[in-house]
Amino acid sequence: EKLEKAIRGYTFDDVLLVPQATEVEPKDVDVSTQITPNVRLNIPILSAAMDTVTEWEMAVAMAREGGLGVIHRNMSIEEQVEQVKKVKRAERFIIEDIITIKPEETVEYALFLMEKNDIDGLPVVDDDGMVVGIVSKKDIASRDGKLVKELMTRDVITVPESVEVEEALRIMVENRIDRLPVVDREGKLVGLITMSDLVARKKYKNAVRNENGELLVAAAVGPFDIRRAVELDRAGADIIVVDTAHAHNLRAIRAMKEIRQKIGADLIVGNIANPKAVDDLTFADAVKVGIGPGSICTTRVVAGVGVPQITAIALVADRAQEYGLYVIADGGIKYSGDIVKAIAAGADAVMLGNLLAGTKEAPGKEVIINGRKYKQYRGMGSLGAMMKGSAERYYQGSHMKTRKFVPEGVEGVVPYRGTVSEVLYQLIGGLKAGMGYVGARNIKELKEKGEFVIITGAGLRESHPHDIIITNEAPNYPLE
Ligand code: RVP
């Protein structure tokens, strides 16, 4: 009887999407997606909270491309806070660590400072911190022996702290200046806006930013680590992701509720694979789905527990919709087509570990094997990661007393794949192609319109290239 009640579970390779009549061209589709009440991404992809996937470089790259990085938690609270701040500083249009010079200094010294810091101009401030002038390389070239105050531009155009990007740009263009000091009410220097920074920002048209122009970033915490959550929230994390191997643990849920009350940021909790878990997690903004699909995960063989990912996403998404919760599909994505399937099954976005671990921006070590470049990638439940502190994710020896762990993940390498930007270009290209075939103009339509066909092993074999020796590896179809 138990077996009669059992449902059938399908994963990515068991299904395909059925093509539909369409008027949608891939180039015209909108892949932006809401993942929490306050965060809308321009692409439906998050990078995994793993110590070989997401630290600040990955988070910056993801946000610049319109996605989101979740900084892993296998480090001290202070280190993780610093990582969040680094992302926030990466593209802040008002620089706060400003190099200044006093009016009584010499021109030689001004030049020395500019050369040393690779900048073209300096605000001149008096002993009270008031802006009294500005000097640029142009003003002082070959004027040795003079003092800064003799050559500086005295009529400095300044802006208040509340200035917005467009306004700053307009002022600089109209006045033909490339440096704009930011002053407080009393006229004290508090920041600097430079043209070169604004130009750099324009390069990433798809980037996701907050109202201050800072890139968005998320950070992972354990369910019981309330202090970490509070500190990360304070440091400016836009989303706190409670990261545990089993979020439907009732003791963990009590702690998560406390986190919810103490933070202002949006809250994602996971992972789950049973729709019943959603009923107990309605205090969150989004749930993350995936027990065991991860490429480095051994939970299903070690513990015998899990739900094939397409079924897990579909069941959870149905329930989540009743409560207005967003859904993130986490783990098991091998190709761009799997992203299309995950969203069609009901996810609002996907989380990737493996596909991003091989990029330049991932923190894993590079290794050469047989002349080919790889990057280290490991599960957070692997022995190596657990020894570094992630055992608590699996409800094991959080105090490291025993050091005898039962791993639920493995350690290895993945092929080097170039930059995050290149990888995402292919993944989003595949997603857009899929949306074209299905006739979905946007993510919402893909969730509604996607119809599945369940395939056999023969169907899967037919799906992949067959009866050919591939001689040129395609950028979106790795051979390993
Ligand atoms: P994948 O993209 O298939 O590599 O899966 C990544 C996901 O696997 C992570 O986001 C996380 O949910 C899960 N994970 C991480 N470590 C482990 C483990 O050691 N079992 N699993």
UniProtKB/TrEMBL annotation:
UniProt organism field: Pyrococcus yayanosii (strain CH1 / JCM 16557)
Binding, NAD(+): D243, T244, A245, G290, I291, G292
InterPro entries (alphabetical): Aldolase_TIM (IPR013785), CBS_dom (IPR000644), CBS_dom_sf (IPR046342), IMP_DH (IPR005990), IMP_DH/GMP_Rdtase_CS (IPR015875), IMP_DH_GMPRt (IPR001093)
Cited function: Catalyzes the conversion of inosine 5'-phosphate (IMP) to xanthosine 5'-phosphate (XMP), the first committed and rate-limiting step in the de novo synthesis of guanine nucleotides, and therefore plays an important role in the regulation of cell growth.
Gene Ontology MF terms: IMP dehydrogenase activity; metal ion binding; nucleotide binding
Residues binding IMP: S295, D330, G331, G332, G353, N354, Y377, R378, G379, M380, G381, E408
Pathway where this protein functions: Purine metabolism; XMP biosynthesis via de novo pathway; XMP from IMP: step 1/1
Superkingdom: Archaea
Record keywords: CBS domain, GMP biosynthesis, Metal-binding, NAD, Oxidoreductase, Potassium, Purine biosynthesis, Repeat
Ways its activity is controlled: Mycophenolic acid (MPA) is a non-competitive inhibitor that prevents formation of the closed enzyme conformation by binding to the same site as the amobile flap. In contrast, mizoribine monophosphate (MZP) is a competitive inhibitor that induces the closed conformation. MPA is a potent inhibitor of mammalian IMPDHs but a poor inhibitor of the bacterial enzymes. MZP is a more potent inhibitor of bacterial IMPDH.
Gene Ontology terms: biological process: GMP biosynthetic process; GTP biosynthetic process
Catalytic activity: IMP + NAD(+) + H2O = XMP + NADH + H(+)
Active site per database record: C297, R393
Cofactor: K(+)
CBS domain location: 94-150, 152-208
Protein name: Inosine-5'-monophosphate dehydrogenase
Family note: Belongs to the IMPDH/GMPR family.
Chain sites annotated for binding K(+): G292, G294, C297, E462, S463, H464
Lineage summary: Archaea, Methanobacteriati, Methanobacteriota, Thermococci, Thermococcales
Subunit-structure text: Homotetramer.
Xref: NCBIfam families: IMP_dehydrog
EC annotation from Swiss-Prot or TrEMBL: 1.1.1.205
